[in-house]
Design goal:
By secondary structure, the protein is of the alpha/beta class. About 45% of the residues lie in helices and about 10% in strands. The chain folds into 2 domains: about 240 residues, Periplasmic binding protein-like II (D-Maltodextrin-Binding Protein, domain 2, 3-Layer(aba) Sandwich); about 180 residues, Periplasmic binding protein-like II (D-Maltodextrin-Binding Protein, domain 2), CATH 3.40.190. It contains 20 helices and 16 strands. Helix 3 links the parallel strand 3 and strand 4. Helix 4 runs parallel beside helix 5. The two termini are about 45 Å apart. The N terminus and C terminus are likely disordered.
Length: about 525
């Protein structure tokens, strides 16, 4: 059973706390609303300190590697001069009995699975390293506490989990360890085969400027849920492959509601439009939007592609082929045929299956990507990564060995079963004896269409601007003619939030005294 404190694979209270920080944007959109209204009428290394062949990453268009770095000899040096160790500089006995503090914000079954695999690590690793878990209660609490620890120069964990935008914020406060030398180390790292087994969309997400800030912990994603039985009854044997076909099916479902004897459902059917930012981001990706400027200089939300995506969604509403449910996660509505399409996450699939069971609905349903007019369907993927704050070479290596353990297929499988998320690599997928569900297996076939969230620290606030723009899009007073103005306001708001974030990040590291 899914843990309902997780919202689409993210912690709900963290989202609420983070969103409260976007007061600048809230005011901006309030003014925008008034203006618009006025215009209207792991891989599997064994945990033994033995040598393996030297590692050379082989880049390809799909699996571009992080830049290779030569590790320097390690000493117990201050953080400011710290370099990852070469395998011949730290002897296994020097790791014996070290304690590794791990901060995470997972809950429910996922947290219990993490506790189990860490307990196993503590009892089986040959160095007698003891990992200790700490959960501050939410992702927002974790981020603020870790940021304070990094700025003060003391009290930081040895291993932490965070989303890519958070890693960039922490990196600004105090440089995180570059994990590339650990990943590629011939004694302690991952083999070329193991590294190339990771899905590129996950593996490359935490590489920035040639530095690997983290390695993936787990990944979920935004999908479209699609009722196959109902679609076939409406005369559509196959899922839509482009926006035009999507609209035809959505409008047919909406018409069927108006033609039945129940007048209370006349406003339902078709697409249940979501105001979640990753849902709108997926639509933008599908329409060809590139929302991050070259070299990460900010955002661009006023492009023709973005405007086309927004206009398509608004036109669905105007034509009565989409509606906005009150519930952010309309599980019961989708299970009772109030929408042919609904937005949902990979992690929410078990809850949706349970909703069908409770509704006594035996309809077959599946997951599909967001349709594209360019034959490039899309879905957005996201999730936390493991990162190692700088401390000293031996402590960092001990933390890396814990992370390496968590990346092994055996541990991945247990975490995947608890969180109902994607496997991170081919090896884990092959080792899983059976898929978690039919829809989960279908989602795996869509990974070639996956796109990551923007890898910018400002995404922490800009994402909520996107969510509020999605809400504006579905307001009764909004019209298709106002889409271009909404895109312009979103672009200006994102630019302002990005500039403020950049200024804040530049000031974070000032005055920090490294601790030896």
């Amino acid at each position: 059973m899914i843990n309902y404190s997780i919202y689409n694979g993210r912690l709900t209270n963290s989202m609420i706390n983070v969103r409260s920080n976007t007061s600048v944007f809230a005011l901006f959109l309030f003014c925008a609303a008034c203006t618009l209204a006025a215009c209207t009428p792991l891989p599997t290394p064994t945990l033994t300190p033995t040598s393996s062949p030297a590692v050379t990453e082989t880049p390809s268009p799909a699996r571009a590697s992080a830049s290779t770095r030569t590790a320097r000899p390690a000493t117990e040096a201050p953080v400011s001069t710290l370099q990852p160790s070469a395998s011949n500089q730290i002897q296994p006995f020097e790791l014996y009995g070290r304690k590794v503090k791990i901060w995470h914000a997972w809950s429910g079954e996922t947290e219990r699975a993490l506790q189990d695999v860490i307990s196993e690590f503590n009892h089986t690793n040959p160095w007698k390293i003891q990992a200790e878990l700490y959960n501050p209660g939410s992702l927002d609490n974790l981020s603020s506490q870790l940021l304070a620890a990094l700025q003060s120069g003391s009290g930081a964990p040895d291993l932490a989990t965070g989303y890519t935008h958070q890693l960039h914020t922490w990196e600004a406060a105090r440089p995180l360890a570059d994990l590339t030398p650990y990943v590629e180390d011939p004694q302690w790292g991952l083999s070329p085969t193991e590294r190339s087994s990771f899905y590129p969309v996950f593996w490359q997400q935490d590489v920035s400027g040639g530095k690997r800030l983290g390695v993936p912990a787990y990944r979920s994603g935004q999908l479209l849920y699609y009722n196959q039985n109902w679609a076939r009854e409406l005369g559509f044997p196959d899922p839509p492959s482009n926006p035009q076909e999507f609209k035809e099916q959505a409008c047919a479902a909406a018409r069927s509601k108006k033609q039945d004897k129940d007048v209370s459902n006349d406003a339902t059917g078709g697409l249940m439009l979501s105001s979640q930012y990753d849902a709108l981001l997926s639509w933008m990706y599908a329409f060809g939007s590139e929302i991050v400027q070259p070299e990460g200089r900010g955002y661009r939300f006023d492009t023709p592609q973005t405007i086309s995506a927004l206009r398509f969604l608004r036109q669905l509403l105007d034509d009565g082929c989409a509606w906005a449910p009150e519930e952010e996660i309309p599980l019961a509505e989708f299970a009772s045929r109030q929408g042919l399409f609904a937005t949902g996450s990979l992690a929410s699939i078990p809850a949706q299956v349970d909703a069908f069971r409770r509704n006594n609905n035996t309809d077959q349903w599946t997951v599909i990507p967001f349709p594209s007019p360019l034959e490039k369907p899309a879905l957005t993927v996201y999730g936390p990564s493991y990162t190692i704050p700088q401390s000293n070479p031996k402590q960092q290596l001990a933390a890396w060995l814990v992370a390496r353990w968590l990346l092994q297929p055996e541990q991945q499988t247990r975490l995947i079963q608890a969180s109902h998320t994607f496997p991170l690599d081919d090896q884990t997928l092959r080792q899983m004896q059976s898929p978690l569900s039919r829809q989960w297996k279908q989602a795996m076939d869509l990974l070639e269409n996956a796109r990551p969230e923007p890898a910018l620290g400002s995404w922490d606030t800009v994402r909520w601007a996107l969510a509020d723009a999605a809400t504006q899009l579905s307001r009764y007073y909004f019209t298709t003619e106002q889409v271009q103005e909404l895109a312009r306001l979103l672009n200006n708001t994102a630019s302002e939030l990005h500039q403020k974030t950049q200024a804040r990040l530049q000031s974070l590291g000032k005055g920090v005294t490294p601790t030896p």
